[in-house]
Request: fold
Amino acid sequence: MNSEITPASTVVPTESATTSAIAQTAAEPWTAPAIFYPFRSAAGDTEHFLTGDESYESVALSTPYTFFGRTYNSLHVHYNGLLTFNQPEPASGPNYNPTRGTEDFIAPFWSDLDDIGWMGMFSYQEYTNGSVLTRATQDINQYFPQMNFTASWVFVVTWDYVETTDMNSFIRHSAQAITFQTVLISDGNLSFFLINYGDCAVIYDQVEAGYDTINSINHFVIPDSINGNYQNLKNTSNVNVPGRWAFTANSVLESIIGVQMRLTSFSDLTQSENIEAVLLKP
Reply:
């Protein structure tokens, strides 16, 4: 399918119309879970409403991001809940993927989201200073305490889908919804990323969450994303924070801390049984 699609006449109103609708409503806005970083217009994000099947937006990065040994100056944000680095992904979902093993990607909630008939959008923003960097620094040092890490760059992208055609209902989340977020974090040398989950409504298509790399040298799939329990993603974690998954994007560090599934943070290496498990890992 062609990824570059001209917006159809039936899609959500333009950004100016959306802003007007938001300003005119007197309804209480929906509040995201506390684990979410700031997003959407309140945070000054760039917003994109759904434009068509298998569409995406390419984003130039002000600061390069290194993902498992490869450094990128841009990325592609897909409406289908996917971030790709080296090339866009033409498939509508993980069960249709013809290019697995040839891409570097992060899949916070990869499914055919742009074809479920809901109102949907994503928003993103880069940060090089301010409170978001402070928060990212604290988060990474909490999950990987032996790194002595200080974030110098953060990229936050958030997807939001609501089963409605009404803008006020979309804003209020007054219908079932799917909301998730990916946060890329770097100090110019080491790279990490977080995946945050809010609402995870029922949809009738395959879902996958995790990441993959070229030749699948580094890869991970969150179990509940593929066993039919994806609604439980907002309750699961590898860092004991419900709805949050934290990962290193550094090949060397991953080889030290072992399987992401087994070790929830770098500090787990202080437990002798985990050290043994890593040493025995083929």
